[in-house]
User: Fold these one by one.
Assistant:
Number 1:
Amino acid sequence: MLAPASIDVNKSSGLRITWDDASICEYSLEQLRSMCPCATCREARAEKKTKKPLLKVLPGNYAGDVLIESVSLVGNYAIKIAWTDGHDSGIYSFKYLRELCP
């Protein structure tokens, strides 16, 4: 299984992951927030029936810019991102992040 060699967090622009195979993936805040893997966000995306979610904030109506508040490791398989809109239930597995790599 591929694992990150390093994870660089920029709270106002996103993540940059260097994988152990030396590939590099950059994830924007919009991409990470709109593709949150939690059940609530998955359901909201399914309701929209679109491959590219149009909602910038899921769920709710958050008026400000959504930024990363914090990032923490979940075991050795994922990260958990807390957002400034109060959402923090998404656990982004490394496998999922690799699939999202732009």
Note: The first strand starts at residue 4 and ends at 10.
Number 2:
Amino acid sequence: MMMQAFLLASLMATLLALGACAPSGTVAGKPAYFGIRTQLLDGDLVGFQVALRNAPGPDAVEAYARCAAAQYALIRGFGFARQIRTTIDERAGLWRADAVYLISAALPAGSRTIDAEVTVRDCGDLGIPTI
């Protein structure tokens, strides 16, 4: 009986220790941003490729691309951008986004529009670099 109690206690301690090692959904370390590549695709369509390590998930790399698009719009003298598409990939902890945005002087039609000035300010507050 004493041996069974000892084995049960050992098993419980092992399970508790393993539970402490389980992933919590967060990534240790500060996000590392690996530059922004831009490519003018056609007139007001612009492509952005960004990469991020230590991202807590796909939303972080999508935000990085959005920040790049907002800054690009401001640099070109435009006030707005609309997300056309964003594809996200993660391999070995490196998150990549390939995004296409339409930049414009007036608020474009669509549901995924951004005010470039507000977005760049928010990106700065969040510590997300822009171009």
Note: The radius of gyration is 22 Å.
